[in-house]
Input
Amino acid sequence: MKKDKVLLPKNKDVYLSMLGKKITKCKRCALNITRNNVVVGEGDPDARLMFIGEAPGADEDSQGKPFVGKSGQLLMRIIEAMGLKRQDVYIANILKCRPPKNRDPLPHEVENCIPYLLMQIDVIDPEIIVILGRTAGITFFGKDFAITKQRGNFLEFRGKRVLPTFHPAYLLMNPKAKKLTWDDMKKVLKELGLSVPKK
Ligand code: URA
Ligand code: URA
Output
């Protein structure tokens, strides 16, 4: 029996909502004490494209949704420039809870939380995953990952095509790098067989 295609595809929304309920109750690490909301992730369960960030910030923690603050607004402009809408893709983070004062995720926090993201990836089964920034890069590809060297190249992670690019928070501080991220997104569109919208 082929294991990979038996159960999942038709029931993706059921799997995701059950998983979401589980994630929302998570107390695997101490971030459950300081969080206001768990940020599970959101988007199209059948998305061909998934974006993965680092962890919720203050706005995300208060609204329970990924990428809704300043970085999120930039990410939405990028997604719209690609001719897509927020609800066409799936957006999630490595950590589902906000680290206090937005500090970097601790190794044990990532270790406890990453199974949730891997389950989301397995259920959604996107064609391409765009990972945003250094933390996501290191989580996927190990501590030698260098965002400035490896962004814009398709890498493989558990049989999936993954393209790292700069984190929108970095782009807000370094606007000149936006052009490079746009080059990366054009590669993603090409790979998905979608045309680059005229500006
Ligand atoms: N930064 C992230 O990495 N994720 C969010 O959801 C918001 C900001
Ligand atoms: N450093 C980061 O953490 N992320 C980027 O995207 C670029 C530099």
